[in-house]
């Protein structure tokens, strides 16, 4: 049985004062012991949050493939681990589309993170044009096949896939329940044995109103939440929905 996994991606939001929200979320999460909860704030807040909340899971939103070196502006998986991060998101569409990250780079980031003992969330998802052409499943399965470091998957429970249709991110739009279930089922089938333990999360406009329905669809093991993860009052109901 896979545990539900609810992850907040704060993207480029938050300040040191936001520790109050993070503490509220971490405190409330203790009421839902059946759910794994994590928050991924911007790099500047990772160490502060992780040291203030040592029992809670704090993660990064990206990592470099190398442990150190002349890579101005980058942060390595080793640095995240040193900052007491427990996980990292890789391959978010805002980096794939916005910065041109490729499957090969994302796979290398995944390997770097696993090597440092971080749990990894690998994001995949189709643009609207691909969905409208009826090719969303093929597109996403190609991303899964290209981004996962199969050779390093000794413990597939250390990897989660987040299916985030690009057109659903920050728009208030979500795919139909049937479409989410079909995509998650296709990903599960493609993962083979690893799919027994690997969590498959849904992301894209998840909120307190739609979380319960989405989280109880077949093959949906949790959610990667953007806007609705920034405050405890919006995020905690999503955690609660995962526990029911
Ligand atoms: O991109 C997302 C999480 O990584 C989803 O963002 P929203 O929940 O704001 O749509």
UniProtKB/TrEMBL annotation:
Q: Which InterPro entries match?
A: Aldolase_TIM (IPR013785), TIM_sf (IPR035990), TrioseP_Isoase_bac/euk (IPR022896), Triosephosphate_isomerase (IPR000652), Triosephosphate_isomerase_AS (IPR020861)
User: How is this protein annotated for GO cellular component?
Assistant: cytosol
| SUPFAM superfamilies tied to this protein | Triosephosphate isomerase (TIM)
The catalytic site is made up of: 92 (electrophile), 164 (proton acceptor)
Q: Which amino acids does the record list as binding substrate?
A: 9-11, 170, 205, 226-227
Q: What is its main location?
A: cytoplasm
A Pfam family in this protein? TIM
* An example molecular function term from Gene Ontology annotations: triose-phosphate isomerase activity
Q: What class of enzyme is it?
A: isomerase
Catalysed reaction, written as an equation: D-glyceraldehyde 3-phosphate = dihydroxyacetone phosphate; L-erythrulose 1-phosphate = D-erythrulose 4-phosphate
Keyword ATP-binding listed? The answer is no
Q: What keywords would UniProt list here?
A: Cytoplasm, Gluconeogenesis, Glycolysis, Isomerase
Question: Quaternary state and partners of this protein?
Answer: Homodimer.
Give the family, as the similarity comment puts it: Belongs to the triosephosphate isomerase family.
**Which PANTHER family does its entry note?**
TRIOSEPHOSPHATE ISOMERASE
What function does the entry list? Involved in the gluconeogenesis. Catalyzes stereospecifically the conversion of dihydroxyacetone phosphate (DHAP) to D-glyceraldehyde-3-phosphate (G3P).
* Name of the featured protein: Triosephosphate isomerase
């Amino acid at each position: 049985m896979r545990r539900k996994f609810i992850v907040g991606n704060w993207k480029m939001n938050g300040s040191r004062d936001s520790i109050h929200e993070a503490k509220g979320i971490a405190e409330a999460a203790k009421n839902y012991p059946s759910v794994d909860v994590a928050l991924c704030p911007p790099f500047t807040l990772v160490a502060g949050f992780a040291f203030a909340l040592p029992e809670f899971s704090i993660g990064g939103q990206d990592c470099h493939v190398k442990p150190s070196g002349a890579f101005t502006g980058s942060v390595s998986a080793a640095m995240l681990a040193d900052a007491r991060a427990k996980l990292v998101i890789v391959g978010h569409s805002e980096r794939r589309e916005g910065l041109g990250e490729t499957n090969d780079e994302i796979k290398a980031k995944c390997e770097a993170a696993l090597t440092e003992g971080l749990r990894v969330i690998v994001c995949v998802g189709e643009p609207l044009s691909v969905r409208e052409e009826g090719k969303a499943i093929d597109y996403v399965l190609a991303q899964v096949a290209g981004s996962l470091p199969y050779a390093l998957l000794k413990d597939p429970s250390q990897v989660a896939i987040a299916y985030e249709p690009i057109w659903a991110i920050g728009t208030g739009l979500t795919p139909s329940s049937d479409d989410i279930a079909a995509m998650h089922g296709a990903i599960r089938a493609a993962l083979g044995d690893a799919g027994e333990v690997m969590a498959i999360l849904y992301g894209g406009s998840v909120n307190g109103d739609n979380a319960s329905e989405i989280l109880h669809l077949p093959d949906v093991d949790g959610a990667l939440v953007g806007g609705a993860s920034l405050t405890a009052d919006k995020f905690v109901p999503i955690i609660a929905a995962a526990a029911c």
